[in-house]
Specification:
Elements (H helix, E strand, L loop, with lengths): L1 H7 L9 H20 L11 E8 L1 H10 L4 E3 L2 H5 L4 E8 L1 H9 L4 E6 L2 E6 L17 E9 L11 E4 L5 E3 L5 E6 L4 E5 L6 E4 L4 E8 L9 E5 L1 E4 L7 E3 L2 H4 L8 H4 L7 E4 L11 E4 L11 E4 L2 E2 L10 E7 L2 H4 L10 E6 L5 E16 L8 H14 L8 H9 L11 H5 L4 E13 L3 E13 L6 E16 L2 E17 L9 H8 L28 H7 L2 E20 L2 E20 L2 E4 L6 E5 L2 E24 L2 E19 L3 E19 L3 E12 L8 E12 L12 E15 L11 E2 L6 E3 L8 E14 L4 E17 L2 E3 L5 E3 L2 E21 L3 E19 L4 E2 L3 E3 L7 E4 L2 E4 L24 E3 L14 E4 L5 E11 L2 E10 L3 E3 L19 H4 L30 E3 L2 E13 L2 H5 L4 E15 L18 E11 L1
Parallel strand pairs: 2-5, 6-12, 18-21
Antiparallel strand pairs: 1-3, 4-5, 6-9, 7-8, 7-10, 10-11, 13-14, 15-20, 16-17, 18-19, 20-21, 22-23, 22-57, 23-24, 24-25, 25-26, 26-27, 27-28, 28-31, 29-30, 31-32, 32-33, 33-34, 34-35, 35-36, 36-39, 37-38, 39-40, 40-43, 41-42, 43-44, 44-51, 45-46, 46-47, 47-50, 48-49, 51-52, 52-55, 53-54, 55-56, ...
Length: about 1100
């Protein structure tokens, strides 16, 4: 295509701004097209061609064709660059015969419209020409073609072809077109540099709008980096984007946070619960930032909010800002990293309607089986004997229970079968409508989600309505207006205090199988009488008569974002958002009397309960900024400055009423500079003022700098064909933290009743600051089919707010908050992204990633800080486990023949109890032997996503796991025979592995109803928390069959999905991810079928 290259390929691109260059290129294409059309009268599709090509690239063939005919061949250089040279000798052949022969065995195809030939990927080549209908039966289609920018720009020179025919046209200088086509024909819209799209002709249409998405390379990809967008090639900081299509589209996830697990390196994502309405994952970016909390800042369309209330199907992009240079634009809110979520907006084109729905059933990932009644009775007798007490159950009782002849008097209850629902339904239905034109675009979405629980009276319903609109009030002025309404209803059994609605699960593990759930009615009575066991309430009674706990949460918000392009490159932007949250909680129960089954005696009365608590929160956010982009030959500048203000007011009414007010004022500035896209510089500064600090300490300034070197742009890399991208990055910056700091800590509070001080404030309290250095390398190989990203970081948090135990002269000893701690996180992360094809019909993608993070407490004022089971000390990890070191279990060899211990032991210790180590050397086991014994946080996190597609089928799965961490087994799972409230029913696994004189190499201590010595915090109860989990496996089928299009369906997808189907772990009694005890509502696995319909 020699003549076409003269038009545009060899122009000096580097001296022309990028957007202007695109416009110039389109003008040149139109000019070439216009010149070609002058020869249309002499054109003949059947004119014979003679070609002779010897081991030459495809462009040589195209040159020969154009030299002897009026054909004009268009293609993108990078599209044909990877194809092998060809040898071809043909005489007197038609064009289609020449191209078919030349492109056979390549990944290329072609389309023909008039005298123009476009070389395209083979999958975009239309089928062979069909016979057109008679002219008088053709339908007329008129419309306009746009790009997908905001505001949209009309596209000239777009080829509009009737698929499978030679009929076609092009859009004019303003993007308008007119074409005639048969009913049910398909129009293909294509333009060099854009992704082709299709439209099915069902009727005449004189107002059609079509939007084309631009094809961009990895470097030209536009990424949301905070307040504005930038091309990836100009970014020098550590920024990662989630593959939304892979992580969310067509996936049955209930919250966005779940999709981040296994999507981005540097994130530690764990789901601690599967409770309906409480199954959101916790997220840490590059470790624990502060001892006061480490939650990242999450912004949805620029506004801080909980992303888990958003319907995942409305998400357009998710960007993670990981280092200080990337996050510093958000200053005080960004100390723990930033997650930016943008939602989908409408694009010009026909109104598109989508439906996404799924239905499935859930069951616990780990529900250990419990012993039956006879085995429980024998084990309980053994525990009583070991405690020096008389057995409770006679041998006759045990035999009667085994026989099962009188299940009322000798019950054998499986409480898990009575209470736990292992086929809890989950379903979601989402409908989206989008479309618009150059004046206005819209995207509407409505979602309903229902999730049932595995315990009675446990469920969650969520309703979500979003309306995003964009209006172009003038050519250079537009405004986005987004409306959001959310309602969530959570229902739980009214046995929730302190355990997030899971006390019912605790009862399942605590009530013995020797207790009958409910006695049969007798003598015509219709009164329900439930079995009882000391102070433990029958879980069935609670499920049926205990009432319910309700939580009704509502949220409504409006978000306005005007944008004015004052002159080319200079934009003024504004943002105003207002949000209202309402949270109502209530406990409801009716009167009920409990009787003894045999005597009829009244045992207990549950009185009616009606209690409510309501909280109301209003939030507003105001921001304004200006940004200017300037390209001067080799120099690219981007400057931005702005201001923001936000305030949150929270009030609640319970027994009393309180009102909390928190506000934050901020100003910021940013400069991005690049020279020849090779050398990059980012400078950012932000000033924040917070109401959480006293006068003189309210303000904090947080600067950052980042440098980048696009090595692949250097001349010495031009000969290294395999490397398509190589960038070296380095950054250093400072961030502030106040988001996890309590209000009014700078003030001393006084009890209104006594007039005495209750807490001391510190007026000198100030910002926690995070200093972070980052070095990274981005590599793209083989035209970016293989991408590798590696980062190393060092993050030091200073001035952490602590409450050391110091004495003050206020009449009592109080813990006064001071800036007196340091915490360091160091680590590295690496990810690989491969996308490729195997043959013509198979595509493969593989995305593994690994993150290593080590945290260390550098300094603590008056440390260490010790609780019953945790310790914060200098040189140790955050949340270190505090207790005794052990050496297994005591054996008979540790005692003399009179039973006296030969080594230091606790008073009353016997063979089968835990053997504690005397690390202090004082010959006794006491508090001086306690020390830091473990780390509950895994340093290593990894994932791997694999997807393969064959024609219309695709198979995808995600692996996710962590390295070693110390998981503490506690409560009933550790000491089931404990007569205190920590005891319960042994698991079958425990029954096979506790110590007896005949089983001395056991995992668990001897049975004991008073296991005081074995309840101490120690490493004996440690289990390795490392695991590998298959997060999901999904098999899908996509079709865009013609018969579907004839009934108005543009696309159809059906899929089957298994979530958390397999887990590989050494933990037998708990889920390795939630790592809880008997009352933890663990993670659920689910088997789901879903469908996606596009109209």
């Amino acid at each position: 295509m020699q003549k076409f290259y003269v038009c545009w390929r060899y122009l000096p691109v580097g001296i022309v701004p990028a957007k202007l260059w695109h416009v110039m290129r389109l003008i040149m294409i139109l000019l070439c097209v216009g010149l070609v059309s002058a020869y249309g009268k002499t054109y003949s599709q059947n004119a014979p061609l003679n070609v002779r090509v010897n081991n030459a690239p495809l462009p040589e063939l195209f040159r020969q064709i154009q030299a002897q005919s009026n054909w004009r061949i268009f293609y993108k250089d990078e599209l044909v660059r990877g194809e092998k040279n060809i040898t071809l000798h043909l005489r007197g052949k038609r064009l289609v015969e020449v191209l078919d022969k030349a492109l056979d065995g390549t990944s290329l195809g072609y389309t023909i419209v008039g005298t123009q030939v476009a070389i395209v990927p083979k999958e975009e080549q239309p089928v062979r020409p069909l016979k057109l209908a008679r002219e008088d039966s053709l339908l007329t289609v008129k419309g306009r073609v746009y790009d997908t920018h905001e505001p949209p720009v009309a596209l000239p020179g777009v080829t509009i072809a009737v698929k499978g025919t030679s009929r076609g046209t092009t859009s004019d200088a303003d993007g308008y077109f007119t074409i005639q086509a048969p009913k049910n024909a398909t129009l293909v819209f294509s333009l060099v540099g854009y992704i082709a799209t299709e439209y099915n002709v069902l009727r005449s249409n004189t107002g059609l709008s079509i939007a084309l998405n631009e094809k961009v390379s990895a470097l030209d990809e536009v990424v949301v980096v905070g307040i504005t967008e930038q091309q990836r090639k100009h970014i020098a900081s550590s920024v990662a984007s989630l593959n939304v299509k892979s992580a969310m589209s067509g996936k049955p996830i209930t919250t966005i946070s779940q999709s981040l697990q296994g999507g981005v390196t540097g994130l530690q994502v764990s789901q601690s619960s599967g409770l309906p309405g409480g199954d959101a994952a916790t997220i840490k970016i590059r470790g624990i930032t502060s001892l006061n909390g480490s939650n990242p800042l999450v912004l949805v369309d620029g506004i801080p909010m909980d992303m888990n209330f958003i319907d995942p199907l409305t998400v357009e992009s998710v960007t993670v800002l990981k280092d200080a240079a990337a996050a510093s634009i958000y200053g005080a809110r960004a100390a723990s990293g930033v997650i930016l979520v943008t939602t989908k907006r409408g694009t010009p084109g026909r109104v598109a309607v989508t439906y996404d729905g799924y239905y499935g059933v859930q069951s616990p990932t780990n529900m250990p089986s419990l012993v039956d009644a006879p085995q429980y009775m024998r084990m309980y007798n053994e525990a009583l004997a070991n405690s020096g007490k008389t057995p409770l159950y006679s041998e006759d009782d045990i035999q009667q229970t085994i026989a099962g002849t009188d299940p009322v008097k000798y019950p054998n209850t499986d409480w898990q079968k009575v209470i736990v629902n292992k086929q809890a339904p989950i379903t979601s239905h989402s409908v989206g409508v989008s479309g618009g034109n150059s004046l206005a675009r819209f995207a509407l979405n409505a979602n309903y989600q229902y999730q049932d629980g595995m315990t009675p009276l446990t469920s969650s319903r969520k309703y979500n309505i979003r309306a995003n609109t964009s209006v172009s009030l003038a050519k250079n002025f537009q405004i986005n207006m987004d409306l959001l309404a959310i309602k969530r209803n959570i229902l739980l059994p009214n046995r929730t205090l302190g355990h997030d609605g899971t006390r019912l699960l605790e009862d399942v593990f605590r009530v013995p199988p020797t207790i009958l759930p409910k006695y049969p009615w007798k003598d015509g009575s219709t009164t329900d009488i439930y079995g009882r066991y000391v102070d433990i309430v029958n879980p069935l009674a609670y499920a049926e008569k205990g009432g319910r706990f309700v939580n009704e949460y509502g949220q409504s918000s409006i978000n306005l974002q005007p944008k004015w392009e004052v002159i080319p490159g200079l934009n003024l932007r504004g943002q105003f958002s207002y949000r209202l949250n309402s949270d109502l909680m209530g406990s409801l129960r009716d009167n009920y009397n409990f009787f003894d089954y045999y005597t009829g005696q009244l045992l207990q009365t549950w009185t009616q309960q009606r209690s409510y608590t309501q909280a109301r929160t209003t939030y507003y956010y105001i921001a304004a900024n200006a940004d200017y982009t300037l390209d001067l030959k080799d120099h690219h500048f981007f400057l931005m400055a702005g201001y923001s203000q936000e305030e949150k007011n929270t009030s609640s009414s319970t027994a009393g009423t309180y009102l909390y007010i928190n506000s934050l004022l901020s100003s910021y500035a940013k400069l991005n500079y690049s020279y020849q896209d090779r050398y990059l510089l980012e400078l950012t500064g932000r000033m924040d003022a917070s109401s959480k600090f006293a006068k003189g300490h309210k303000y904090g300034f947080f600067p950052s700098v980042a440098l980048g070197w696009n090595i692949s742009k250097e001349k010495f890399m031009s000969s290294v064909k395999a490397v398509s991208n190589m960038k070296l990055r380095a950054s250093y910056g400072q961030l502030g933290n106040e988001s996890d700091v309590d209000l009014y800590q700078y003030q001393t509070t006084i009890n209104s009743g006594t007039g005495l001080e209750t807490t001391y404030g510190n007026p000198d309290l100030s910002w926690e600051t995070v200093n972070m250095a980052d070095v990274g390398l981005d590599i793209g190989l083989f035209n970016n089919k293989l991408e590798i990203v590696v980062d190393y970081y060092n993050k030091l948090t200073r001035d952490i707010i602590l409450r050391p135990p110091l004495s003050y002269t206020g009449g009592f000893e109080d813990k006064v908050p001071v800036n007196a701690g340091k915490l360091r996180n160091t680590g590295w992360e690496a990810s690989v992204n491969y996308n490729g094809n195997i043959g013509k019909n198979i595509s493969v993608s593989f995305r593994p990633g690994v993150t290593y993070n080590k945290n260390e407490i550098v300094s603590l004022l008056s440390g260490p800080y010790v609780s019953a089971t945790t310790i914060q000390q200098e040189g140790g990890p955050y949340g270190g486990i505090f207790g005794y070191k052990t050496a297994g279990l005591l054996q008979e060899s540790d005692f003399d023949k009179d039973g006296k211990p030969l080594i230091p032991v606790l008073p009353g210790a016997k063979p089968g109890d835990i053997k504690y180590l005397d690390i202090s050397g004082n010959k006794i086991i006491d508090g001086s032997d306690q020390t830091l014994i473990g780390n509950p946080i895994a340093r290593l996190n990894y994932f791997a996503n694999f997807r393969v597609a064959y024609k219309n089928f695709d198979l995808e799965f995600l692996l996710q796991g962590t390295g070693k961490s110390d998981v503490v087994l506690a409560g009933m799972l550790a000491l089931p025979m404990d007569n205190s409230k920590d005891g319960g029913v042994p698991t079958r696994f425990y029954a096979d592995n506790y110590w007896t004189p005949q089983r001395t190499n056991a995992m668990f201590p001897r049975l004991n109803t008073l296991p005081t010595n074995n309840k101490l915090s120690s490493d004996f109860w440690f289990q390795n928390g490392a695991y590998l989990r298959v997060k999901y496996i999904q098999l899908g089928y996509n079709t865009q069959a013609d018969w579907l299009k004839r009934v108005g369906i543009r696309g159809l997808r059906v899929y089957m999905n298994a979530q958390n189907p397999l887990t590989f772990s050494k933990l037998k009694l708990t889920d390795p991810e939630s790592q809880g005890d008997q009352w933890t509502y663990g993670i659920m696995k689910a088997f789901i079928a879903g469908i996606n319909v596009q109209l």
